[in-house]
Design goal:
- The structure is a single chain.
- Helix 5 (138-150) crosses helix 6 (185-191).
- 35% of the residues lie in helices and 16% in strands.
- With 252 residues, it is of the alpha/beta class.
- The longest helix has 18 residues, at 30-47.
- It has a 7-stranded mixed β-sheet with strand order 3-2-1-4-5-7-6, covered by helices on one side.
- It has 8 helices and 7 strands; from the N terminus they run αααβββαβαβαββαα.
- It folds into 2 domains: 13-47; 53-250, 3-Layer(aba) Sandwich (Rossmann fold), CATH 3.40.50.150.
- Bound molecules: S-adenosylmethionine.
- S-adenosylmethionine is lined by residues 71-74, 77-78, 91-94, 111-112, 133-135, 140.
Length: 252
């Protein structure tokens, strides 16, 4: 491989993207995958220098979340932020909690679709805060947001992770790179419509942004068909690079 290098701490976004381009054209082996990961981490630090998503979640929990739902728990890095006294429900078919939890956890080892199908009635309008971080695929995330609206307390909020991809290469519907947001941004686009009875904003949180839905009237959900049509509309959009995609999302 020809030497193309950049200082990860001081290199500009343009320089980092140039090296990323170069690496993406190499045959993928462990070394290339690891270098790509470092470039993507550096890009994420450049794009979101001020706020870490876990700090954002932690501030919410400290302000007093009583009933919390997290879809996609993995090792519990985010679930561990739920405070003592918080009733926290975690959903993940393959969770493997590696941290002590201070909250009162109930864990469901299942896919989000199964959880919402089996337990939506039990948890109707139950949660103050819902964090969606399961499968990083647009249609699945759109379904998760749609179902989450039915278990959200009036006045509650939903945060969906990975909606501001730092590179088009990490925004593929199936995982091609270690740092992977998937095409979740398309689900955020689907809900970010000025005619919907929803308030929303993008949060510039490291490493890949959050989409926040808040002040929601739980009786006024956009139709599922309309949401899926908007996901399809987003998936047909073409962007030359991540800068264009991010500008588009920030302009919504
Ligand atoms: C990025 S990790 C979650 C990280 C965690 N929220 C955190 O902040 O540390 C994604 C997790 O989603 C889970 N997952 C994948 N598909 C899912 C689905 N359809 N429903 C629920 N969880 C899913 C995976 O098993 C994985 O553990």
């Amino acid at each position: 491989m020809n030497q193309v290098s950049v200082n990860l701490k001081t290199g500009s976004k343009a320089e980092l993207r140039m090296v990323e381009d170069h690496l993406l054209r190499q045959p993928r082996n462990k070394d290339v995958a690891a270098k790509l990961m470092r470039i993507h981490e550096a890009l994420a630090t450049r794009e979101f220098p001020d706020l870490e998503y876990k700090n954002y979640l932690s501030t919410k929990h400290k302000a007093g979340v009583r009933d919390y739902l997290e879809v996609g728990v993995r090792w519990g890095d985010a679930l561990m932020l739920a405070a003592p006294g918080c009733k926290a429900v975690g959903v993940d078919p393959a969770f493997d909690i590696k941290h002590p939890l201070e909250c009162e956890p109930t864990l469901y080892g299942m896919l989000s679709d199964d959880f919402f199908f089996e337990h939506s009635e039990r948890y109707a309008q139950a949660f103050d805060l819902i964090f969606l971080d399961g499968l990083h695929e647009a249609r699945q995330t759109a379904k998760d947001i749609y179902h989450a609206l039915s278990v959200l307390k009036p006045g509650g909020e939903i945060l969906s992770h990975d909606v501001l991809p730092i590179s088009l290469a990490v925004a593929t519907p199936t995982q091609q790179t270690r740092f992977w947001t998937g095409n979740v941004w398309q689900a955020a686009y689907a809900f970010a419509h000025k005619d919907f009875p929803l308030k929303w904003e993008f949060i510039e949180a490291h490493p890949s942004g959050l989409f926040r839905l808040y002040d929601i009237d739980p009786d006024c959900r956009p139709s599922r068909q309309l949401i899926m049509e908007r996901v399809a509309e987003a998936s047909a959009m073409k962007f030359n690079d991540a800068g264009e995609l991010l500008d588009f999302l920030r302009s919504l």
